[in-house]
C-alpha cells in the first residue's frame, strides 16, 4: 500500500542571550593602481590584489582576492565588501598586508610587489596617506635606483552594519511554525518505516527528536500544537489533512517534543493511514500563514520527513516558487533506502526550482537523506546530532536573505517582561 503523511507544527521561541554577538560591520572599498611593473612579454600585466590579515603568531591569513584586470598597468578594481572582523579581527591597528600579482593562465602568478596598511588607515578614506608604494623586496635589493613597482590608491571606503541571524531572532517574540509531515505505512508491520519498535525509535521519530530537542529549548512554554494529515479518522473513516494528534481540537498542544512523539505514536494506533503523498497542500498551508506576516516579525520553517514518494511534483514546485517570496524555509529529511531524486531537485542547490517559467526568488529548500547520518556503531544520539547540525545549518542564511531582500532591520531585543504568549495557529 502507498504510504501517506502525518505531521505536526511547532511554535519556536528564541530567547535573547546576552553573550550573543551583535551585528558585524561590513567595509566596502575600491582601489586602483598606477604604473605597475610590466610582467607579460607580449602585453602589459593582468594585475589583481590579495589581502592578508596578520595573526598573533606573525603569520598571515588570506581574507580577500580582487578580480583580475586584464592587460593594463593602471588597473581600477571593482568595489568589494569584506567583514571588518575578517580584515582586522577587532584590532583596528592590526597589520593588513596586500600583495599585487600579475595573473598567469597556468597559475604561476608573477609577484609584482606588496604594501602594508591597517583598517584604521583605510577608514580615513581617500587621502594622500592612502596612496601606497608597491615594493618588491628582491628588486629593491638588486637595483640601487629602484624606487617602487607602482602605487596603489584607495579610491573610496565606507562601513555599514551587517545584521546577523541573532540580531533578528533576539527581537522576535515568537517564531512559528515548524510543521513535520511523515509518510507512513502500516506501523504494526516490521516492514514499515514507521514500525513501532519497543526497543528503539524508528527513523521518523529519530529525525523529529533530533531537530525538536534543539528547538524546544527556545520555546517559552514548551507547548507544541501537533497535527497529522493524510488519514481516515474514526469512527466514520472521514479523510482529514489536519487533525490534532492529541485528539482534542480545542487543545492541539503537546508538552515538549516527548509529548509530540507520544501523541504521534498514539495516533498511529487509532487512525487509518491514507494516501496519496502530496507535498503541495502543506507547503501552501504554511505559506498562507507566512503571507500574513512579511514585516519581519515572524519566520516560518516547514520540516517534511519523507520516504521519497511524492505524488504532486508539479504542484509542489509551484508551491516552492511561491513560498520563496515569503518569510519561510523548508527542510526535507529523507528516510529509508529509496532514491531521492525528486527531493534533490527540490533542494535547488545546483539549479533553482522553477515552475511555469518562474524561478524561485531564493533557495529555501534544504534536503538531507537520514541514512547519510546513521552512525555505523548504531549510536542513535550521534546520528541525531549529525542530522540536526546539517538540517538547521542553512536556516540563518535563508532568514537573513529574506530580511535583506525586503530591507527589514532587526527589532530591539525583548526583555523578559515584554514576552507575550506564543501565537498558535495551523
For the secondary structure, the number of strands is 22
Helix content: 10-25%
Order of strands, main sheet, comes to 1-10-18-19-22
Segments where pLDDT lies below 50 for 5+ residues? Answer: 1-23, 173-184, 416-426
Q: Major sheet, described briefly?
A: 5 strands, mixed
Mean pLDDT value: 79
Alpha-carbon distance between the two ends: 29 Å
Number of DSSP helical runs: 11
What oligomeric state is this? single chain
Beta percentage is 25-35%
Shape: elongated
Protein name: C2 domain-containing protein
Family: Belongs to the copine family.
GO molecular function: calcium-dependent phospholipid binding; metal ion binding
Domain C2: 6-132
What do you see in this structure?
Helices cover 23% and strands 27% of the residues. Strand 18, helix 8 (313-323) and strand 19 (328-334) form a beta-alpha-beta unit. Helix 7 runs parallel beside helix 8 (313-323). The strands form 7 sheets. Strands 1-10-18-19-22 form a 5-stranded mixed β-sheet, sandwiched between helices. It has 11 helices and 22 strands. By secondary structure, it is α+β, with helices and mostly antiparallel strands. It has 2 domains: 7-19 and 166-418; 24-162, Immunoglobulin-like, CATH 2.60.40. It is elongated. The longest helix has 13 residues, at 203-215.
Amino acid at each position: 500500500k502507498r504510504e501517506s503523511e502525518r505531521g505536526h507544527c511547532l511554535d519556536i521561541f528564541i530567547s535573547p542571550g546576552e553573550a550573543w554577538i551583535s551585528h558585524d560591520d561590513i567595509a566596502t572599498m575600491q582601489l586602483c593602481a598606477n604604473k605597475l611593473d610590466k610582467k607579460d612579454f607580449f602585453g602589459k600585466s593582468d594585475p589583481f590584489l590579495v589581502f592578508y590579515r596578520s595573526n598573533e603568531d606573525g603569520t598571515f591569513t588570506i581574507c580577500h582576492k580582487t578580480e583580475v584586470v586584464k592587460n593594463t598597468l593602471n588597473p581600477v578594481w571593482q568595489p568589494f565588501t569584506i567583514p571588518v572582523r575578517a580584515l582586522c579581527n577587532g584590532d583596528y591597528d592590526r597589520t593588513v598586508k596586500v600583495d599585487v600579482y600579475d595573473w598567469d593562465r597556468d597559475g604561476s602568478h608573477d609577484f609584482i610587489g606588496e604594501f602594508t596598511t591597517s583598517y584604521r588607515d583605510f577608514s580615513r578614506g581617500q587621502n594622500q596617506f592612502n596612496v601606497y608604494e608597491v615594493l618588491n623586496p628582491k628588486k629593491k635589493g638588486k637595483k640601487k635606483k629602484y624606487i617602487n613597482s607602482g602605487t596603489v590608491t584607495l579610491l573610496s571606503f565606507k562601513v555599514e552594519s551587517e545584521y546577523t541571524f541573532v540580531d533578528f531572532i533576539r527581537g522576535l517574540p515568537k517564531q512559528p511554525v515548524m510543521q513535520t509531515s511523515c509518510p507512513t505505512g502500516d506501523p504494526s508491520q516490521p516492514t514499515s518505516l514507521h514500525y513501532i519498535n519497543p526497543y528503539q525509535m524508528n527513523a521518523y521519530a529519530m529525525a523529529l527528536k533530533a531537530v525538536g530537542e534543539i528547538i524546544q529549548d527556545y520555546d517559552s512554554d514548551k507547548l507544541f500544537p501537533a497535527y497529522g494529515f493524510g488519514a481516515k479518522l474514526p469512527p466514520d473513516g472521514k479523510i482529514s489533512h489536519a487533525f490534532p494528534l492529541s485528539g482534542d481540537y480545542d487543545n492541539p498542544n503537546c508538552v515538549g517534543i516527548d509529548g509530540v512523539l507520544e501523541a504521534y505514536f498514539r495516533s498511529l494506533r487509532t487512525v487509518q493511514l491514507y494516501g496519496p503523498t502530496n507535498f503541495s497542500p502543506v507547503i501552501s498551508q504554511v505559506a498562507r500563514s507566512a503571507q500574513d506576516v512579511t514585516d519581519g516579525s515572524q519566520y516560518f520553517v516547514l520540516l517534511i520527513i519523507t520516504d521519497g514518494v511524492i505524488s504532486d511534483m508539479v504542484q509542489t514546485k509551484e508551491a516552492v516558487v511561491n513560498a520563496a517570496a515569503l518569510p519561510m524555509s523548508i527542510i526535507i529529511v529523507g528516510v529509508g533506502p529509496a532514491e531521492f531524486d525528486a527531493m534533490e531537485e527540490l533542494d535547488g542547490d545546483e539549479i533553482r526550482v522553477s515552475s511555469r517559467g518562474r524561478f524561485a526568488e531564493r533557495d529555501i529548500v534544504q534536503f538531507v537523506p537520514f541514512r547519510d547520518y546513521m552512525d555505523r556503531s548504531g549510536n542513535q544520539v550521534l546520528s541525531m546530532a549529525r542530522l540536526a547540525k546539517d538540517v538547521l545549518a542553512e536556516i540563518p542564511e535563508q532568514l537573513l536573505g529574506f530580511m535583506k531582500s525586503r530591507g527589514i532591520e532587526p527589532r530591539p531585543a525583548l526583555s523578559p517582561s515584554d514576552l507575550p504568549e506564543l501565537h498558535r495557529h495551523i
